[in-house]
Specification:
Blueprint lengths: L1 H19 L5 H7 L10 E5 L10 E6 L4 E9 L1 H4 L7 H8 L4 E6 L11 H22 L5 E13 L3 H10 L4 E7 L14 E2 L9 E2 L2 E6 L20 H4 L6 E6 L10 H10 L10 H20 L21 E6 L12 E2 L8 E2 L1
Parallel strand pairs: 3-4, 3-5, 5-6, 6-9, 9-10
Antiparallel strand pairs: 1-2, 2-4, 7-13, 8-12, 10-11
Helix pairs in contact: 4-9
């Protein structure tokens, strides 16, 4: 009996030790997880400017009706926030499924108006003061659902990115990081006609914040109409070189400017040939890739010590079959150390007039 008992104790101890030995595949698991669908089912709620006294914009909210504190990711659509949020339903829903409140902000109007920081501020105020209560009372969200607006991220696509830049140029507020997707500067798609910009080549921005910039190889390629959707002199390294915080630059070389949109919109682009796109590239894979990069960045910034390995995803090519060219500028940041937004006093205006 003594021998049997000792054997069972030894077996139990061995099992406990084995359970706590780090698996060699743990890092691989961290690499793959952000690129799939998250654990949460997502509800979509639309708030329209014309029907809401507290909004000067339209916002579409993608969020889990579940218990928890969910950080906020703002997403400003293209053309300075003119494109409807529904063009990005797949992308925004998958982002939210990883445990975020994704708020897409858009408004029909003049592109010049979007350079005014006040354009976006009403939406932020609504999210921070009214959104949680609205979702619970009007949409039936559970009582333990909370909008964690103290941990917010600003993201934008195309010319929507200059809206995000103007926000940081004015105030850090509760923003933890900046996400630029196919970033384009200027108030006009024709470079020689641009009169307003947020980035001045050769100068740094007046804020320091962790930044993820994702571009595509076809961004600067001219369409059949002779114009590029992201002219080289107004996009790409123009933004990367101006940042003062840790900045990741990821170029999905085979993809195009609006390949992140839902199928109906990419099909329309294929017919009109507005922005160059390769019809043979799998667009859904690209959306999964974008989600994985964004989720890795956000979770890495929120917990740079515990989730430091996630930053590797921003520096690795071939994830979910998407080949990339990757660059990283630490700008003095010590890897895996805490990150925050800092506004640097500057005599420069929020944006530049040419």
């Amino acid at each position: 009996m003594e021998t049997i008992r000792n054997f069972l104790v030894l077996l139990l101890v061995t099992a406990v030790i084995a359970k706590n030995i780090p698996d060699e595949d743990d890092d691989l698991g961290r690499l793959v997880d952000p690129f799939g669908e998250g654990e949460f089912a997502i509800n979509h709620t639309a708030y329209r400017q014309a029907l809401n006294l507290f909004l000067d914009t339209n916002i579409d909210v993608y969020a889990p009706n579940a218990t928890g504190n969910f950080p906020v990711i703002y997403f400003i659509t293209g053309l300075g926030g003119i494109v409807p949020a529904e063009a990005h339903t797949l992308l925004l829903t998958q982002m939210a499924s990883h445990g975020f409140v994704v708020v897409s902000v858009w408004k029909l109007g003049s592109p010049e108006d979007s350079f005014d920081p006040a354009w976006f501020e009403a939406a932020v105020e609504f999210v921070e003061t009214r959104l949680e209560n609205s979702l619970k009372k009007q949409e039936g969200y559970v009582s333990d659902f909370h909008v964690d607006y103290l941990h917010s991220f600003l993201s934008g696509h195309s010319a929507g990115t200059h809206v995000a830049i103007t926000q940081f140029q004015k105030n850090c507020l509760n923003y933890q990081g900046l996400i630029l997707i196919d970033a384009v500067d200027g108030n006009n798609p024709i470079p020689e006609n641009v009169t307003i910009t947020v980035i001045t080549p050769g100068q740094k921005v007046n804020f320091t914040v962790p930044t993820l910039q994702i571009v595509t190889g076809l961004d600067p390629v001219a369409s059949v109409y002779g114009l590029a959707c992201a002219p080289e002199e107004l996009s790409g390294k123009r933004f990367f070189d101006a940042m003062t915080g840790p900045t990741w630059y990821v170029n999905a070389t085979a993809y195009g400017h609006i390949d992140l949109m839902d199928p109906g919109y990419t099909d329309l682009n294929d017919a009109l040939k507005f922005c160059p796109s390769d019809p043979d590239t799998p667009k859904y894979d690209y959306i999964q890739f974008l989600v994985g990069e964004i989720v890795s960045f956000v979770n890495g910034v929120l917990d740079p010590v515990g989730n430091c390995a996630l930053f590797d995803n921003l520096e690795t090519t071939g994830l979910v079959g998407v080949n990339t060219e990757n660059e990283f500028a630490s700008n003095g940041w010590q890897r895996c150390s805490p990150l925050q937004c800092v506004l640097t006093p500057s005599s420069s205006p929020f944006f530049s007039f040419w």
